[in-house]
């Protein structure tokens, strides 16, 4: 009788204890793993080098972006400081005072015109033609010489002008 090779799933391994498994029972499916060749090792090393180079480039890119952001912040800060100095200098200048005076005058005139318009609409029966200035007239000092003599105030007694009859 020949020796029978039993698998573990069949239950008994007593007859197969002294013999190695047959070559037909070894797995033959799938590729056999062999050690990589020198060329494959070089390709793997190249991939690692490329990956490291890519990581280095990405790191430098991030550093450059951070540097750009810092420079932008510094530039904006410098611009705002320069603008603040220019505004402060303009506010102190006589040019700004002249601008303020001109603006105030225009705002005042506009306010008067609005008020006149409201008055005309509110009081239609009144003759407000005296409010209109002639185009040749400009506000300014009067050409009439001032009379330096003091004005005399006359105070009369405060007695009633009519008599009130007394009740009887």
TrEMBL record:
The name of this protein is: Uncharacterized protein
Bias kind Basic and acidic residues: ranges? 36-47
Question: Biased-composition ranges for Low complexity?
Answer: 12-27
Species for this entry: Cocos nucifera
Disordered, as annotated region? 1-52
